[in-house]
Amino acid sequence: MPDADDVAPSTPAVLLRAAGKTFNPGRPSAVTALTDIELTIAPGEFVSLIGPSGCGKSTLMRLVADLEQPTEGTVEVFGKTPHQARLDQDYGIAFQHAGLLPWRTVQANVELPLELHGIGRADRRARAGELLAMVGLAEFGGHRPDQLSGGMQQRVAIARALAERPRLLLMDEPFGALDEMTRERMQAELVALCQQTGCAVIFVTHSIPEAVYLSHRVAVMSPRPGRISHLIGVDLAERNEDLREDPGFFAAVTAVREALRGHDVQLPPRGVEVR
Amino acid sequence: MGVLALVLAALAWEGYKLVGSDDGWSAFGVRLLPRADDVSMPHLWQVAQRFGEPELSAAGSSSVLVAVLQAAWFSFRLSLLGWLVGGVIGMLLAVLMQRFRTAQDALLPYVVVSQTVPLVALAPLVVGWGGHLAVFGRPWQPWMSVAAISAYLAFFPVSVGMLRGLESLPATQLGLMHCYAASWWQTLLRLRLPASVGYLVPALRLAAAASVIGAIVAEISTGTRGGIGRLIIEYAQSATGDPAKPWTAIIGAAGLGLAVAGLVGLLDLALHRYHPSAGR
Question: What is the number of alpha carbons within 13 Å of residue A17 lying toward its C-beta?
Fold first, then answer.
């Protein structure tokens, strides 16, 4: 695992240049999922992708994860191809479904990526214990995943995504299946985790308040073909529960909502900047 | 529950003997209900009694119970061998077919066709081929033909069931293994194999039943001595003079099937934590 020092500070965490993705190219069933994507994410930056179903936000994340290959343009992760970044385990990933292996304990699930990459048993155990403590599940290491609630399972999935100390976290609607209360608590925990680890994050979501609460920038996407229509900078005070009541927060929510409706975004009085 | 089912079956048998006509019941010249006379359907206690009596009228003959148990033990070992060999071959085929799409396209039709060949037609061929083979320097034995035919029936449900298990994985779990840059081998060991257990155990149960049927039919059609299949044929010949005797062999064969099914039940318990509903 390369250290953060390997990469010059100016190297972006993620760089997409004129990137596009067409499924079944050259056939009558061809679908252009993404076109002309330009996006640069700095190390430690939190960027949400938001848009209606079918706008290609998950596909965009999957290009970065090397789960799909771009058909146009280039994608770079820490200056490397996504393929190399995947082999080097430069990113951690979490999906809407926690995807825990039901026959393994919670602890063994967190250890899975470490185990696959040949980390010794004692080190694995220590690291998994540390991660479970970080997500508040220290006492649940010996439980089976189906003994945990949906929110707890998702915490385990996030702990697992952080196992290799990645500098980039890819999250595809990880809180999509959770109830509103759990969701808000998980958002606050995620903000704390990101501050603790200094991870850059690509976060796919359907929820406007969620995107605004979490992100430094919100990429608003429009469908057919999928493209980034607006990049909205969210420059808010410290992210805590009070922020959800803050006028600046509402202004940003409004700006994202307007952008989603396809309106030109009015520059709000403070705290939000449209680039 | 198993005991209750047995009691109900026994009541149905004796109940039918009570109300059924000795000549059965026919409509338009076709007999629709079986004869209920003592030759066709001996009383259960007569069958039970027969177990304790000597097998043959000759002096020093052992009891029917001993003969049936010996024959069932012989067939049990062959079924078990057939089940194990068939199970291993079935699992290897499933893994091969999962790994290589071409192998699946090439093999799967033949795997299905293999089961449409009548066993009775196959048995003499196996014996014939076996005559030219030697296993570890020892000549082919008749019991090897029986085990081979038993394995031939047993591998089918295992290969088809396990292939399904290996391929039916949630997209999230497969995506994760891809993101971890896990090799095919790592994915097989850590994800596909454990996830396939829920499909494998029912397949092994079917294979167990198939291996018992395979062994019994193979004994009969290859003329192998010593097993329960042969005993069923031998005892059936005395049906008119000794009506309870054939039923002892049939009960022995049913017991054999239960014993093999019981073994799979133990395996199921051992693999319980891999079952999809484990812990719920």
Answer: 7
The pLDDT assigned to B280 comes to: 37
- Do B223 and B126 belong together in one domain? yes
pTM above 0.95? no
User: Is A101 within 8 Å of chain B by CB?
Assistant: yes
**Mean pLDDT computed over A184-189:** 86
Total domains present in chain B: 2
Residue B279 lies in a domain: no
* Same domain (yes/no): B67, B136: yes
Q: Using an 8 Å CB-CB cutoff, list chain B residues near A114.
A: none
For residues A65-79, average pLDDT = 90
Task: Provide the edge-to-edge strand list for the sheet that holds A72-77.
Answer: A31-41, A14-23, A72-77
Interface of A with B in 52-71 (CB under 8 A): 65-67
- Please indicate, yes or no, whether residues B107 and B15 belong to a single structural domain of this protein: no
B141 lies in the same domain as B255:
yes
Question: Domains of chain A by range and CATH?
Answer: 32-90+166-275 (3.40.50.300), 99-165 (no CATH)
ipTM score of complex = 0.82
B270 found inside a domain = yes
| CA gap A93, B89 in Å, rounded | 37
Residue of B nearest to A89 (CA): B180
Answer yes or no: is B229 within a domain.
Answer: yes
Q: Write out the residue range of the structural domain in which residue B36 sits.
A: 1-41
pLDDT averaged per 10 residues, chain B (length 280): 83 82 74 75 80 72 82 90 94 92 85 82 80 74 86 91 90 90 91 91 91 89 84 84 84 88 88 64
Taking the Cβ of residue A1 and every Cβ of chain B, the question of whether any pair is shorter than 8 Å is answered with no
Same domain flag for B15 and B98: no
**Pair (B194, B256) in one structural domain:** yes
Interchain proximity B175–A99, CB inside 8 Å: yes
- Could you check whether the bond before residue A225 is cis, i.e. omega within 30 degrees of 0? yes
Q: Confirm whether B226 is domain-assigned.
A: yes
Among B174, B177, B179, the strongest candidate for a mutation testing the A interface, having the largest count of A CBs within 10 A, is: B179
